[in-house]
Amino acid sequence: MTTITLVQGDITRQSADAIVNAANSSLLGGGGVDGAIHRRGGPAILADCRRLRAGHHGKGLPTGQAVATTAGELDARWVIHTVGPRYSQEEDRSESLASCYRQSLRVADELGARTVAFPAVSAGIYGWPLEDAARIAVETVRATDTAVEEVRFVLFDERAYEAFAQWVG
C-alpha cells in the first residue's frame, strides 16, 4: 500500500529516492519546476538529458511519458522526467496527465525507488486548473499498482497544498 503525503515547499530540497520533474519535451531544462531542478541538480542532469536526446529520445519525450536520469546534486538518486499536457478547454487531456503519474511510477518501480516526490504536474505554466490537477494526480496514484512505498506531493504554495489536501484527506 502506497502512503500519500503532502509537503508545502521546494521540491529541489526534498530527500527521496526519486524526484519527478515536470519537464518540457526537449528535456533540456526550462522554467518553473524544470528550471529549478536543473539549476539545483547541476550539470550532470543536463548531461544525462543530452545523452537521452542523442539516443532513443532524439525528438524529445512525448507528453505523458517518463524517463529517468541521475539526480546530480539533489538529495535523491534519480530524477524522473515527465512531460505533462498543456490544459485545453477544447480537448480533454486528462488521460495524458494521468499517464504522467502512471509512467513515472512505472519508471520508479524499474529503478527500485521506494520514495517518490512529485510536483503538481501541468498545474503551473501549462495552465491546468489546480483542483482538477490535484484530483487526477491523487486518484491516479491511488489506482496505480506500484512498489513505491511513499508518494510525496510537494506543493509550492498554500493554495496548491489545500487543493491536494481535499483529495488526500
Mean of pLDDT: 96
Side by side, the strands of the main sheet go 1-6-5-2-4-3
Name of the level-1 CATH class: Alpha Beta
- Weakly predicted, low-confidence segments: none
The strand count comes to 6
Sheet with the most strands?
6 strands, mixed
- Give the tally of structural domains: 1
CATH homologous superfamily label: Leucine Aminopeptidase, subunit E, domain 1
The 3D shape can be described as: globular
Q: Helicity range of the residues?
A: 25-40%
CATH hierarchy: architecture: 3-Layer(aba) Sandwich
**Which structural class should the secondary elements be placed in?**
alpha/beta
Beta content comes to 15-25%
Count, helices: 5
Q: Descriptors for this entry?
A:
single chain, 169 residues, alpha/beta, Leucine Aminopeptidase, subunit E, domain 1, 6 strands, globular
Please provide a written account of the structure.
The chain is of the alpha/beta class and 169 residues long. It contains 5 helices and 6 strands, in the order ββααββαβαβα. It has a 6-stranded mixed sheet, with helices on both faces. Helix 3 packs across helix 4 (130-143) and helix 4 (130-143) crosses helix 5. The longest helix is centred in the middle third of the chain and has 18 residues, at 94-111. The chain is globular.
